[in-house]
Write a structure and sequence with these properties.
The protein has 16 helices and 15 strands. By secondary structure, the chain is α/β, with parallel strands linked by helices. The strands form two sheets. Strands 9-8-7-10-11-14-13-12 form an eight-stranded mixed sheet. The protein has a seven-stranded parallel sheet with strand order 3-2-1-4-5-6-15, with helices on both faces. A hairpin with a 2-residue loop joins strand 12 (305-310) and strand 13. It is globular.
Length: 383
């Protein structure tokens, strides 16, 4: 454990050196201690940049209870380093079973947090299931992902959102930069690291043309790939066409693609029918938050056999002679097999998180229980 923690601290220090916004906020938090008396529950991707956010919140006086937001994105050396830091409790490990992950969410809530910051919407979902009356100290929550914000808005529409929530993902400084340029770079970094293959000359199918899909397409073109986009929204489809990409249906696109990327946030997008049309040696990867966009059960049911052929690369072999490769078990590929977004991008996103949490600590008790945007003055101060 000591060796793991030492490696974790080195990774955290490298990221910190490239996160100047976070450093300035941390300095102010150390002076002003806006989170004194608060316990912040954090359900986040536990890697080096995230650790710097957690340490910034701790510097502001908060006690921290930290869990992972995806079992494959937790880096054990980072969890070990945080666990050795006074005032931070960690309950996370790489590859933890889903039952253990669910238990960690309950443990976080049992710690009686006053504020929550999360990726993915699992914690708010569990709060609604358990009942807000079991969390009398909870003021509000910040959510950074598209998937999580969709969950918050769904609860709001149903009248079930029990606390004010800040949709950090909806900030322009988040989706214009993190979703597009961060995911664009980090996803292709993950694909190239895990496969060691050339991208130039390959055909790439991108499923979903939101900000994430746009970033994936932009970087694929820069690497010399032919890009096909499939998108249900006809307006976004036209946008993809005008930006120089081919547009096709899922079944048409997947039959041509060497690499298939999902970026929709929706379950089962690549299902049995699409898998039957995939090319021999096609590579599948998911850029969405949860690992349900590619139907792994369908892969396992229909393949004769599967095995890991490289770290993070699983080969599925079929009776018709085809082999399909799945990266990172279908989980969020840039964190499952790589290190996530560049530090400079996460410096911006985590500054939004830190200042939004400060806003909740100061004013959250006066906010109605609905989804709120990041205050304009916070975005402008970061820009």
């Amino acid at each position: 454990m000591k060796g793991e923690a030492e490696l974790g601290f080195k990774k955290i220090a490298w990221a910190r050196a490239h996160m100047p916004l976070n450093a300035r906020i941390k300095e102010r938090f150390e002076r002003e201690r806006p989170f004194a008396g608060h316990l912040i529950g954090a359900a986040l991707h536990l890697e080096a940049k995230t650790a710097n956010l957690i340490l910034t919140l701790r510097a502001g006086g908060a006690e921290m209870y930290v869990i992972g937001s995806n079992p494959l994105s937790t880096q054990d050396e980072i969890a070990a380093a945080l666990a050795e830091t006074n005032g931070i409790t960690v309950s996370a490990r790489h590859g933890e079973p889903l039952e253990e992950h669910a238990a960690s969410i309950d443990q976080l809530l049992d710690s009686s947090p006053t504020l929550i910051v999360e990726d993915g919407g699992e914690v708010i979902g569990r709060i609604v299931e358990r009942g807000i009356d079991r969390l009398p100290r909870l003021i509000g929550i910040c959510e950074e992902t598209t998937t999580g914000v969709e969950q918050l808005r769904k609860l709001e529409r149903k009248g079930k959102l029990p606390i004010p929530a800040i949709a950090v993902n909806d900030a322009r400084m988040k989706y214009l930069l993190d979703n597009r340029y961060g995911t664009g770079q980090s996803t292709w970094d993950a694909i190239m690291r895990s496969t060691n293959l050339l991208i130039a000359g390959k055909t790439v199918l991108i499923i979903g043309y939101g900000w994430v899909g746009k970033g994936l397409a932009l970087r694929a073109c820069g690497l010399g790939a032919r890009v096909i986009v499939t998108e249900l929204d006809p307006i976004k489809s036209v946008e993809a066409l005008m930006e120089g990409h081919e547009v096709a249906s899922l079944n048409e696109g997947i039959s041509q693609a060497d690499i298939v990327l999902t970026a929709t946030g929706k379950p089962g997008i690549v299902g049995k029918d699409a898998l039957e049309r995939a090319k021999d040696r096609a590579i599948l990867a998911n850029a969405g938050h949860f690992g349900y966009e590619i139907d792994k059960e369908a892969l396992e049911r229909t393949a004769l056999e599967n095995d890991e052929v490289r770290p993070g690369v699983r080969a599925y072999r079929f009776a018709d002679g085809r082999t399909i490769y799945l990266l990172g078990e279908g989980e969020l590929v840039n964190l499952a097999v790589a290190d996530g977004h560049p530090a400079e991008i996460m410096d911006i996103s985590f500054s939004l998180q830190a200042l939004s949490l400060e806003h909740l600590a100061k004013s959250g008790k006066d906010l109605p229980a609905r989804v709120h945007r990041v205050p304009e003055e916070i975005e402008r101060s970061i820009a």
